[in-house]
Every structure is written in C-alpha cells, then in structure tokens.
Amino acid sequence: RKGVVVITGASSGLGLATAKALAETGKWHVIMACRDFLKAEKAAQSAGMAKESYTVMHLDLASLDSVRQFVHNFRQSERPLDVLVCNAAIYRPTARTPTYTANGYEMSVGVNHLGHFLLANLLLEDLKKSDYPSRRLIILGSITGNTNTLAGNVPPKAGLGDLRGLAGGLNGRNSSAMIDGGDFDGAKAYKDSKICNMLTMQEFHRRFHEETGITFASLYPGCIATTGLFREHIPLFRLLFPPFQRFITKGFVSEEESGRRLAQRSVKQQAHSIVVGILQVVSDPSLAKSGVYWSWNKDSASFENQLSQEASDTAKARKLWEPFDAFSSAV
Ligand code: NDP
C-alpha cells in the first residue's frame, strides 16, 4: 500500500513543496493539514498535484480544540498514519506586542510548539498502530534556535531560562508572554519555539523510541528567505537576507556570478536541495535513525548535527514536557 503522511502547514513554502514531491513519487498519500482549507486546495491544484494523491484536512494549530478535531477527523477517515511531519510555523520578528492563540498562549510558541506538541502526542497512538516498515515523527527545527552556530548567535538569542513564563501560562496577563519570563520579542519567541521543537523531538525519542520503534527526528533544512515565513519581516531584510545567507553563512561564492541573479539562482537551488533533504528524513532508509537532528553540508550530504547545549538539555526537555502531560491527554 501507499504510505500515509500528514504534513502540517502544507499550503505554502516547504510544506507544499514537500507534499508535492512526496505525492509525485506515487508511493505516498499526503494529508495536507492546513488552517485555510481553500488556500491549501488551490495550492495543491496549482502545484499540479494529482487529485487522488492528497487530502486536505482542516487544522489550526492556534486552537487546541482544532488539533483535537483534526485527530478525530483523521481517525474517521480510517487511514493509517505512517509519518507525521510537523512543519507549520509562524515567525513575527517585527511584532511589538504579542498575539495569542485561542487558548491564550503567545502565538509563536502556541502554534509552533504547543499545537504540534499536542498533535504529536495524540497521533503517537496512530503511529504505533501503523504496520508501515518505517514510521517517523519529524519536526522542523532551525539553526536560529541553536546558539552553537553563527546564525544562532544573531541577537536576540534563543533562551528558555527556567521556563517560568511557560509555567505561568504564557498569557501576558499573570505571566510573561515569553517562555523565560522576559519582555516580549517576536524574533526571540520564534527561536524559543524552535528550541522547544528540538527538545520535544529528543524527549519523544527518549520516552518512546525503544518501546515503539518509531523514528523521532528533527532537521534543519537550510535557510530559504523567499517562503511565506518571512512575510512579516522588514523589506530590507527580505532583500538582503538571501545574499547574506549565501555569502556569509554558506561562505562560498562563484566569481562569475553576481548580485541579484546569483541570489535568485542560489535560492532556487537551495529550495530544491531543502525539499530533497526533507524527503530523505521522511522516507530514506539511510536516515531512519531516531533521536537525530539532521543537517546537510554544502555538497548536500546529510550528517548528524550537534544541538546547542540548551537544545540538548535533557532536564529541560523533561521539564518542558511535564506541565503538559495533562494538557495532552486523550481526545
Ligand atoms: P511558510 O510561512 O511558507 O509556511 C508555513 C506554513 O505554516 C503555512 O502553510 C502556514 O499556513 C502554516 N501555518 C501557520 N500558522 C498555522 C496555524 N495556526 N495552523 C496551521 N498551519 C499554520 O514557511 P516555511 O515553509 O519557510 O517554513 C516551514 C518550516 O520550516 C517551519 O517550521 C520553519 O520554522 C522551518 N524552517 C524554515 C526555514 C526557512 O528558511 N524558510 C529555515 C529553518 C526552518 P498559511 O498558508 O495558511 O499561512
């Protein structure tokens, strides 16, 4: 049978490109778990995805009720679940004030981490039941949450502190809207949420890999500043970032090419290699190892990357999990 993969946020960017690429292999049925049903359906059609290769199902990660409803609807469909890709995210670097999810959590952490945390916990049961040879739960990480890298040291740096804001409800009323209890910073909130994603993946691995055989992995797919993720960034950043990325963080240039054309070409090539990378983590037998944070070098070879000290802090991962054992109880 075909594998069944759920991809959150498959209505644009990397999620859509991955959905299309998986559908085109003919080996996967893709469940596009999206907050805007119509947008996702149109995106799939204009990407040329064959009708029978995908199903759009509504999921708004900013509402825990919607997460539960999605799981219910998915189960009603009676499809097995073989791979879950937690890809959706929002990034609000220029926001001066926090916004909140339906449950009152700061939006970036609420969507990127808490919504996925509940979804992954609930769907773990479905992954366990699947008879697919290689079941996987994948979370998109980011270099920006990793302070052991150049990009991860661009201020404001990620940092969860002692999690006091999260423990207080992350609601901006009787607790801070930031996990570490500090003042709101939209860029930091995104980076913090990505540390949470990476800590969550490792805690899943420690808790459930041995018992279930499921592969838990996160990946840094490489940076591509032309996706919707950067829609709220200042225009100057959007203009400068792709070349910056190529020149500074990648550290190589081809002498004949210059300026804009170079940036555009590199973005296109990079987008392609990013999707190839995600596909490998979804289905390649050589990337079936659990508990790994995958990255790719400039020759597009995968390697097991090191996480920063905070992103691999086991005590913090456990602490991040505990207040939500109740929150993630059955549908
Ligand atoms: P996009 O903004 O293009 O895609 C994000 C997706 O998430 C969209 O489909 C969006 O839906 C969806 N989404 C946002 N909020 C919600 C919500 N409340 N419920 C459900 N879905 C939601 O971003 P990218 O493709 O760039 O990012 C994909 C992933 O890759 C993210 O996890 C990001 O952190 C990660 N990543 C990206 C990098 C990059 O350079 N682009 C670098 C490192 C990591 P809608 O279409 O309705 O807006």
Describe the structure.
This protein has 331 residues and is of the alpha/beta class. It contains 9 helices and 8 strands. It has helices at 13-24, 37-46, 64-76, 107-129, 164-167, 186-212, 235-249, 259-283, 314-321, and strands at 3-8, 28-34, 54-58, 83-86, 136-140, 215-219, 292-296, 302-304. The protein has an 8-stranded mixed sheet with strand order 3-2-1-4-5-6-7-8, with helices on both faces. Helix 2 links the parallel strand 2 and strand 3. Helix 1 (13-24) crosses helix 8 (259-283), helix 4 runs parallel beside helix 6 and helix 6 (186-212) crosses helix 9 (314-321). The longest helix has 27 residues, at 186-212. The model is unreliable at 247-263 (pLDDT under 50). Residues 8-9, 11-15, 34-36, 39, 59-62, 87-90, 111, 140, 142, 221, 223-225, 227-229 line the site of NADPH dihydro-nicotinamide-adenine-dinucleotide phosphate (NDP).
Q: Topology of this protein?
A:
Blueprint (H helix, E strand, L loop, with lengths): L2 E6 L4 H12 L3 E7 L2 H10 L7 E5 L5 H13 L6 E4 L20 H23 L6 E5 L23 H4 L18 H27 L2 E5 L15 H15 L9 H25 L8 E5 L5 E3 L9 H8 L10
Parallel strand pairs: 1-2, 1-4, 2-3, 4-5, 5-6, 6-7
Antiparallel strand pairs: 7-8
Helix pairs in contact: 1-8, 3-4, 4-6, 6-9
